[in-house]
Amino acid sequence: MKQIQEVFAAPATEEKLQQVADRIRERNIEALIVNNGEEARQLVLERIPIGAEVHSGKSKTLQDSGIFDALQDPNQFNALRHQVLKMDRKTQGKEIRKLIAAPDFMLGSVQAITEDGILVDVSATGSQIGPYANTAGKVILVVGSQKIVPDLETALKRVREYVQPWEESQVRKLANIGTFVGKILLVEREWVNERMTVILVREPIGI
Question: What pLDDT does residue 172 have?
Fold first, then answer.
């Protein structure tokens, strides 16, 4: 485990970070580089208008950077999470699905980025995959440089041998149930101009 952590938790070199940012831009995705989570938070908040409709999963990257908490401020944004928590999943399941399927702004992260700029997102339920791929108006992803890997094979190894075991331990602490790799999204190129932004963070952040 220690060897895996050394491989998948170490920050990328500056040269590699700049190269990956260029590859991401070639895929019609905006790529920005910041030093740490605080700078990422400031940049995110600058890009979302006051009162905008926002949604996100409970990404560790968003939590570590303070972005998740900032998005929940009712004086700043219309966070769909607040609405969903007030709804009954048994009787309003259809309404909940529609509400969170197409937010104006979707925030999150991914588990890996290949050196040629492919974004790799993995989920048990797939709740964020639809908005990332197509249905959200704009997508902002905050990604620590430690998530940069050589290729897709290594990306999936990072997911299965490093990220998934950590997620398993967290879920079991909260609900005493396991988790699994359910759905995988590969973003090779964005169709809509200026729809997707990736904020690369030099310091490792998230898992």
Answer: 83
